[in-house]
């Protein structure tokens, strides 16, 4: 195990080249230096009984890794997965059978977190993850998030995985999370609702909501679970290649199977990013695509911008121009990570109907930011925090303003004040 002392300003980059799952993520952080005793003690603040947490050193394709085990009372084979196949959260045959475990509504889990004796950031990160899962499940089943009943995610081991990851991040003093593209499998998986496509619908919806990059490989296992993907899409400040880091430790969290030819692990690299500077040090490479269109309506251009953001663009926008013969037109721009450049260019051509693109490689220097969730009269609203500034998520604020019958500006102001109150 890599021993590393917690200190502020630390970044964790998760490399999900073999997929991701909650137990693998927690184990990777422990392998990278999060003291398992401290993680377990912090988890003890959760009003949840009837489980035991252990970490085991293992090998995956010859790589030293750590595997997490959550043993639940009534799980007689002691593997924590309720189905006897030993796979836990990262189920290599796609079979998550929690059918005999009581379903837990999102409202119950939210109340459990509110009542927990947890550090503020641990609670906030856990809230953010479960809220995202509830929103996704609610959209899929056409019901409000509060009415969602979690099946697999409501099981004791999945709750321990999610909150345990948030505890391990806190033990390591992680302020910023970055995630690679997430690898997914193919075929079908089995869940509480029956046989589902692989990747599971919840996984795809989570990726789409965040615009997170992913890649599929020819493997019929459930490589990316809803729990693991929810953690990455809820907690990652950014997706892409490993940022510039002074590396302090590395950890590997193992899935249950030892797959020939591919280490079945989530890798996490922990380190300190250099201070943000808007010159001369090298920035983050980005690809800029542009195309001029004079035959698209404003609605089509707006839809194109939205589609580019869903596909994973860092940013997308349009500027008015005048083309030959005085024709009014627009240039549509898309800025993206090189890892998703092919998909972004495809979306730009498809949505605008353009006959060609131009592009260039640039550098960017993004300011470090974190995301929190605040409550405005019972409505959850996401807020980005960066360098003493707060940026309230417009869609969340607009939805709350509509539900409360308040002016949008009032909700924006209340959310910003609530976020400022969370600053140390």
Describe, in short, the structure shown:
Helices cover 32% and strands 29% of the residues. It is an alpha+beta fold.
Shape: globular
Mean of pLDDT:
86
Beta-strand level of the residues, as a percent range? 25-35%
**Number of H/I helices:** 11
How helical, in percent, are the residues? 25-40%
N→C terminal distance: 31 Å
Strand order within the widest beta sheet: 11-6-1-13-12
**How many E-type strands?**
20
Largest sheet: 5 strands, mixed
User: Structural class, judged by helices and strands?
Assistant: alpha+beta
- Rounded to the nearest angstrom, the radius of gyration is 22 Å
Low-pLDDT stretches are: 75-101
Q: How many individual domains?
A: 3
Describe how the helices and strands are arranged.
Elements: E1 10-15, H1 22-31, H2 36-43, E2 51-60, E3 63-72, E4 104-105, H3 106-115, H4 120-141, E5 149-150, H5 156-171, E6 174-179, E7 182-184, E8 188-191, E9 194-197, H6 201-210, E10 214-216, H7 226-235, E11 238-239, E12 246-254, E13 265-272, E14 284-293, H8 298-310, E15 315-322, E16 328-336, H9 341-352, E17 358-364, E18 370-376, E19 379-386, E20 389-392, H10 394-404, H11 408-421
Parallel strand pairs: 1-6, 6-11, 7-10
Antiparallel strand pairs: 1-13, 2-3, 4-5, 8-9, 12-13, 14-16, 14-17, 15-16, 18-19, 19-20
Helix pairs in contact: 1-5, 1-7, 2-5, 3-4, 4-5, 4-6, 4-7, 6-7, 8-9, 10-11
